[in-house]
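Support request, please re-run this one:
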Amino acid sequence: MAINNKKINNKKGFTLVEVVVAIGMFVIIIAASSGIFARLFKSYRGAKNVNENMKNAQFALNLMSKTFRTSSVKYYIAGGGNIIVVYDYSQSSCIRYVFNGTALTKANTTIAVTESNCHNGASFVSPAIVMTSGAVTGSFYARDSRGNDSNNSSTRVGLVTVNMRITSGGAVDTGSSARIQSTSSLRDYTVSNVGIDPNNAP
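Re-run finished. Output below.
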């Protein structure tokens, strides 16, 4: 009786090519996932920085709005510009606000001035105080108050509109940004004769 001593080998393994392909696919998946997570983290960090910078910009905007309401506009660029000069009656001060391309700055006159000599060429404190954080650009649109009830076409209430764009301001641009805008009506009615008829003035 013959005995069959042949061993049947049913064990199967991975070939070298299969192992190399599997490792390559694993590396590609990990690299792609890492890139996605890196972009998500970068966007999150940028949005967080913009949010903090926007809080500072909003605070500065509120301070400016309070100043504008007790001021007369003395200098602005028609159609919107990066600079505005106002005379604040509550502080008896000439104030200049400027968007210098990276921030919003504020400067007061170095000496007491009257409303009549408050203008863009007045002696302002140098250096100007930076009011914002991050990178801030913007513009001012202004309209001065004019009053003459004898000629209704020339009677108008002044206003100042401030428009800001805020970014994170970091070395790497994350693409995150925010915009805020505010309009303030001037209350210099008696100074500008709004609602006062010069022909019937006491």
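The two ends are 142 Å apart (CA to CA). The beta strands are 71-76, 83-88, 93-99, 104-108, 129-130, 135-143, 159-167, 177-185.
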